[in-house]
Amino acid sequence: MLSVLIQAEHIKQYKTSMAKYIQPTTQIQHIARCGECDELVAISGLEKGQHAECPRCHHNLQSKDRWSLKRCSIIAISILILMPFSLNYPLLSVDLIGDKVDASIWGGIWKMAIEGYPVTAFMVFLTAVFAPISFCLAVIILRGCQIIKRKPRNLLIAIDYLKPWVMFDIYLVALGVTAFKVRDYASLSIDSYLIAFIATAILMTLLFAKINPRELWNDFYPQHLRLSPEQTEKLRENPPHFCYSCDYTFIRPLHDHKGRDICPRCNSLLNRTASMSLQQTWAPLLAGIVMLFPANFYPISYTFMNNIPTGDTLISGVISFINMGSYFVAFIVFAASIFVPISKAVIMLYLLASIHFNWQHSIKWQMRLFHIIHFVGRWSMLDLFVLALMMSLVTRGQIISFSVGPAAVYFGASVFLTMIATTNFDSRLLWKIYDKPAK
User: Fold this and answer.
1) Cβ atoms of residues 74 and 140 within 8 Å
2) N or C: which end of the chain has fewer CB within 10 A?
3) What is the pTM of this model?
């Protein structure tokens, strides 16, 4: 069924948004398909401060209420200037019987790597160093391409893959958890470079919130499917193609050298069937669930007091914070380390079962559950970031020392795999069940 545009105009005096349908007129309209529910929508021209939503699932289809690439590139440059001070210089310091030890992001990653945990160190490096720097560089290069009027197809694809793995904001929370964890062992002091780290985290969060990789495609490759109301009526019988990779709606696909249909904008293959999408979701999800068992039963860290090791599992770490009286920190660690990974796996199993068994439950709640786990899943990396900072602060050879446990690599792998599963999940399969007539 062909829907019409729903525009959400942000009315400042009421501090709310009003949605209105625009009835078919003689105006030329831009046609797009919704990437979440597959609805066909006609969008008229948007003015500054407006955005177009799907009238069925309220997914943001197009927006004029976002920061320009010029402003985003300025923020990205500021982040790169602050990044060396945030990564390499000390953020926290502890005094262990007259011996001052500093904690830095890079120091923790390096010690974790050279002391026998290279895989865990690589996971932390990827999400706390490589992805943030690469994301900022990509934004800056995109701005350069915009100035010289080049079309960076591969860079737009890369920035879409990079964004979910930028976790610098989570490292800020991990720093606070680490401070609570070590305060009972030694006196803690804050270094002045922490200001640069906090500023970097805030700017990274702003950039993360204000830039949409899918919207950037329209800056370089605008949608061209603009039809009159009479022409849009004909699309009911023969709906246009849709590229899931770049949210592009078009009439005729291109063909690669093997004769396969590809998107004319990003050159992605269009033969992604429902069975392929389900396989790409099931495989990493089941692998992530398997990894959760050793992650919860093996020790994730060891604390050595006078060369006597004490292993801490995920749940015992939460209990230790409770015994210390840090109830809020215990809640954060419990939510990130135990509740979120398990609930994400359970919800994904439920959504996949709904598709396989054609369960016609409330589509509103199903989509809400999916959006929640897609947003909070990355916060499970909090534990690995705390481990990296602890490795930097409390090292071997001291009266108190700290070491990573075998559960860390399993836990990190579980977080990565379940994030890949939620990224590959196709919510349109839920809407197809919703569209079926009830028996």
Assistant:
1) no
2) C
3) 0.84
